[in-house]
Amino acid sequence: ANAAVAASAEAPATPRPRVFYPRLVRDPPPSEAKICALFEAYRDSAEDAMLADGIERLCADLGLSPDEFKVLVLAWRLDAARMCRFSREEFVGGLRALRVDSIRSLQSRLPELAAETARDPDLFKDLYRFTFRFGLDADAGQRALPADMAACLWRLVFSVREPPILGRWLRFLEGHPHVRGIPRDTWNMFLNFAEAVGDDLSSYDDTEAWPSLFDDFVEFENDKANQNIAKDREGAFKETD
Amino acid sequence: MSLKPKRVNFNETWKELQETVKCVITLSNVPRSTWNDRFSDVYSLCVAYPEPLADRLYLETKQFLDNHVKNLLEKVRSNGKANLLKSYYQAWSEYSLGINYLHRLYLYLNQQHIKKQKLSEAEIVYGNLTPDTQEQMEIGELGFEIWKKNMIEPLKENLVNFLLEGIHEDRLGEGNPNTAEIIKGVIQSFVTVEEYKKKENLLLYQKIFETPFLQASGEYYKQEASRLLQVCDVSMYMERVTQRLKEETLRSQKFLHCSSFDKVKEKCEQHMIADHLQFLHGECKPMVQQERKGDLTYMYSLLRSVPQGIPLLINEMLEHIKQQGLQCVTSLKGENIYCQFVESMLTLHKKYKDMINDVFSGDQSFIGALDRACSSVINYRINPKVSSRSPEMLAKYCDFLLKKSAKGMSEAEIDDRLAQSITVFKYIDDKDVFQKFYSRMLAKRLIHQQSQSMDAEEAMINRLKEACGYEFTNKFQRMFNDITVSTDLNNKFSAYLKSETVDLGISFTIYVLQAGAWPLGQTSITPFAVPQELEKSVQMFEKFYHSHFNGRRLTWLHHLCQGELKLGYLKKPYQVTMQTFQMAILLLFEKTDSLNCKEIQDTLQLNTEQFNKHVTSLLESKLLHSSTQDVTPETILKLNLEYSNKRTKFRITAALQRETPQEVEQTLSAVDEDRKLYLQAAIVRIMKSRKMLKHNCLIQEVLSQSKGTFSPSISMIKKCIEALIDKQYIERTPNSADEYSYVA
To answer: What residue ranges are annotated as transmembrane (chain B) (predicted)?
Structure first.
C-alpha cells in the first residue's frame, strides 16, 4: 500500500508570539461603538464584511495605497483570513487589540507597528509566514501560491529589509515558468535561505535540508556565473590577439 | 642395604662420589654397580644422622662443576681462535649430555631436597618476587647455569662473530656443509642453557645472538636490495627477491630457533620490499595495463607481505578493468547492441575473474575491486543527466534469448547464457527499470506465444527470484501462472460447450489475465464492435466464466488478440495470422471487394488512431490496395485479388508488436512514478518509526532501504520529502530547519 496519497486539513496555525507594547501614556480604552461604526462605514452592502471596494476606501482615508507594507501589517494584525476581505470579527477584534477606534488613531499607530515589525526578527517571521496563508486563494482550494502571486507577495513583504538575494531569486522565477507553485515549506524556508546566503551563493550547501527549488536556483546562478567567467576569458583572449 | 639414616663420613663418601661424577660428566664408562652405589651415597648423605649433609653435598658439587667448566674453557681456548666454534661445540655436546646423566645420579637430592624449597610456578609467574640467586637449583639446571657463566659469558663475542660469519658465508653460497651442524648446535646451546627457566627463557638467545643477527641480516639485505636494483629491471628484481625470501626461510629453519623465523622474514621484507615500495608501486600501473601476469604474480606476493603494499595494486586493477569496460561499452554500435553489451560485459567479467584467480589467488579484495569496476561500467551514464540504458539492454538480451527468434543455438546454450546474464543483472543499480522492461517483454512473449519454451521462462524467473527475492518476481510469476492455468480453463470451456451443445463456428482459445500483474496500459483501449463471426465466442465465454467465477469482471483486450484467417479468393488458399482488428477489417470484405474507410470505421467503431494503424499495416502487407496515398475517411480500400505469396501460412502481426520509442519512454516514466511512491512510502515508514530525524540521516536511511532495487538521486528524495511536508505527513521540527518530525 502506498502511504503517500491523501489530503488533509489545514495545519493548526502556530500560536502568535505574545508581544507587549510598553507605552508611556496609557490610552483610554477604545470605544466598541466607535469601532463598529467605523466598520459599518466601509462594510459591503450585501455581506457582513469589508470587501475590496471598502478596503480601498479605508486605505484612501488612511492616506495609504492598498499595496503598501503598512496595509499588509494591518491585515496581519487583524489576522485576516484572506485578501480583500476583513470580516466583522477580524476588524472589530483586531482594532480592539490594537487599542484604536478611529481613522486618526489607526493612522498614527500603523507606522509604529510597521517599524517595530521590520526591526524585530521574530515579529517579522510571524508576518512573513502569515503572508503565505493570506495570499492563498482558499476558495479555490489552493495549497501552493502561484509563482506570480508569490513574487508579488515577496516584493511586498520584503519592501522593508529587502534581502540582497531577492532580486536574483525573482528573476530566476520569472525565467523559469515551469515553476508554477510555491508550497508553504519553500515559502517559509526562503526567509532562512535569504539570511543564510546573504549575497554569496558560494556558501550554499545542497546537502543540507533546503527545498530542492533552492538547489535549482543556486545551480542556475552558478552556471550563469561560470559562463560569464568563460565569456570574460574569451573576451580577454580576443583582446590580446 | 638399609634406608635408615645413619652416620656418614662426608669426606670419604664425597671422595668416591667425586670420582664417579668426573666420569659421568666426561661420558666415561661407569659400571652399573658403581652407579648404583653412588646413587645410594647421594641418598645417605641427604638423610645422614645426626645432621643431613645435603647442603654440603650441593656446595661441593657446585664447586666441582665450576672448576670443571673452567678447565673446559681453557681447553677450548687452547685449540686456537680459528677452531673456536668447533671446539666449543664439541665441549658443549659432551657436557650437555653428561650433565643430563649427572642430574639423574643426583635424583634424590633434586627430588627431595631441592624441589621442596623451590618456588612454585605460580609464584614465579604471578608473584612479584625476584628469584633469590642464592637459591639452590636442581643439578641439571645448576650445570647449565655454570656453563652459561663460565663458558658462554667469556666467549660470547667471539662465538657470535663466528656464527654471523658462518651464516653470511652460507648466504653467499660458500658455506661448508660440515659447519652447518656446528652452527646450529652452538646457537641451540644458547637456547638450551636457559630452557629450564619458566619465564623469559629465550632472553639469553635473543640478547647475545638474535639481536646482532637481525641487525646483520638487515644490513645484508639492505645492500643486497640496492645491488639488485642496480643490475635488474623490475621483473628480475621481484624474481630475485622472491627467491631470496624463500632461501632465507629455509636458512632460518636450518640454523635458528623457531621463534626467530618470522622476525627474519619481516626484516628481509622490510629492506627488500617496504623500503622500495615507491619503486614497486610505480611499476604497478604499466604492469597492470599490459596485464603482465607473471610479473603481477610476483608483485602480488611481495606487496601482500608488507603493510600498505596491496591497496595501490588493487586500485590499479580496478581502474584498469573500469577503463577496459568503458572502452567496450562506449564503442558499441549496430543492430544488436544489447547482445554485444551483455556478452562483452560477461567476457570482461570472466577474463578478469580468471586473472584474479590465477594471479592474485582469488584474493577477496581483488574480487571486490572487480565488482566495483563492473558495477561502475554497467551503470555508467554517458550523459550524467540521463540514466543508464543497461537495464533495458539486459532485458532485451533476455527477451532475445527467450523468444523464438534465438535461432541456431541449442537449448543448453540458451540456458547457459541466461544463467550468465544474472552476473550482469547483479551489478545493475536500477533493478526496478529492468523489472519494468522485463515485465513488458515477458507479457508480449506470453500473450503472442513467442516464447521458445515455457520451461526456459520459468527457469529464468526462478533465477531472478534467487538473485533479488520473491517480491521482485512476484508479478512475473503471476503472469506465468495465468498462462499455465489458462490451458485448463480452455479445456473446461470446450467441455462446457460440448455439454451445452453449442458450436462457435470457429476454434477459440483465451487467456484470462489478472489485471494487477500485467503491465498492460489502458492507453490502447478503443471502442470496438466485435464482428459477428466472433460475437458468439465472446458471449459464450462470458456466460461460462461468470457461472464459474462469480463477481469477477472481464475486460476484453481485443487489441492484444490475434486470429487466423483463411483467404479463399486468391489463386492459392492462404492462412494468415493477424490481429483481431486487422481481421475485423478484412472480414468486412466477405461480400464486397471495395469499401471506403469511413464506412469501415463506422461499422467497427475503432478510434482513428487504431484504425489508421491497422489499415496501414494491411496496406503494407499488400492484402489491400488504397485509392489515395494517405488514409483519409474518403479513401477507398480494395481487396488485392492479385495477391500472391511464396508461403501459404504467414503472419502479418510483427510490425504491430515491435517496441516503439514511445513505449520505452512510457516504461521509463512509469518507473519514475513508481519510484516516487516507493520513496515517499519509505520516508513515511522511516519517520513513523523514528519520529524525529536529521535531514542527512533521513537521506542515508532512504538510500540504504532502496539500495536493492535502485539508487535514487538525492534531488528525487528531496522532492519526495517536500511532497510529504506539503501533504503534512511530516514537518520541519520547529526551530531547526535541518530536522523533520513525523506528524501523527
So the answer is: none
